[in-house]
Amino acid sequence: MILIRRLQVKMIYTNSDGGARGNPGPGAIGVIVRKDGKILVKYSSMVGSFVTNNIAEYERLIKALQLASKHTKEVTCILDSELVVKQLLGEYKVRNPRLLELFLKVQKEQENFKIVRYKYVSREDKFQQIADELLNEELEKHGFKKKVFK
C-alpha cells in the first residue's frame, strides 16, 4: 500500500504600508496577514511623531514579520516600497544610519522563518490598498488629517 501525503500550503502573505504626514512627521503603519485570500490579521499603529516615510516603511515590515511568525514559518511579504525591497534583496545599499538599524531588525526577524520572500507591488493592489487604509485611519484617529489640495 502506498500512502500519499497531501502537501500543506504553509505560505502566508503580508501586505503592509507605512507613511508619514509631512515626511518627516507623524507616522503610522498598516499591516494585514492573509492566507488563500482570507485576512487573518489586521493591524495598525502609530510609529512616531517625527519619522520619515522610509522609516515607517521599515517599521511596517518589522511588524508584518512579527505578526506572520505567529502563523507560519514561510512568508511572502508584499510591499509597495521599491527602495525597501531592493535594499532587502541587496540591490541597493543601506546608507542611512537609522534605516540600517531597522534593516538589521528585519534581518533578525527573518530568523523566525524557514522561507521569507519579498515582492514589490504597486499601490493599486487590492490588499495593499487595505493596508494603506489602515495606516491612514490610524493617522486620522490621532488627529492627523490628510491635506486636501484644491
Structure, described:
The protein has helices at residues 53-68, 82-88, 97-110, 126-141; strands at 12-20, 25-35, 38-51, 74-79, 115-120. The protein has 150 residues and is an alpha/beta fold. The protein has one domain: Ribonuclease H-like superfamily/Ribonuclease H (Nucleotidyltransferase, domain 5), CATH 3.30.420. It has a five-stranded mixed beta sheet. The protein is globular and about 40 Å long. The protein starts with 11 loop residues before the first strand and ends in a 9-residue tail after the last helix. The model is unreliable at 1-9 (pLDDT under 50).
Number of helix segments?
Answer: 4
Distance between the termini: 73 Å
Average of pLDDT? 92
| CATH architectural designation | 2-Layer Sandwich
Assign the CATH class.
Answer: Alpha Beta
How would a crystallographer describe the biggest sheet?
5 strands, mixed
**How many runs of DSSP E, i.e. beta strands?**
5
Please tell me the total number of domains. 1
Query: How large, in whole angstroms, is the Cα Rg?
Result: 16 Å
- Placed side by side, the strands forming the largest sheet appear as 3-2-1-4-5
SSE run: EEEHEHHEH
Net shape: globular
What is the CATH superfamily label?
A: Ribonuclease H-like superfamily/Ribonuclease H
Low-pLDDT residue intervals, each spanning 5 or more residues:
1-9
Structural descriptors:
150 residues, alpha/beta, Nucleotidyltransferase, domain 5, five-stranded mixed beta sheet, 31% strand
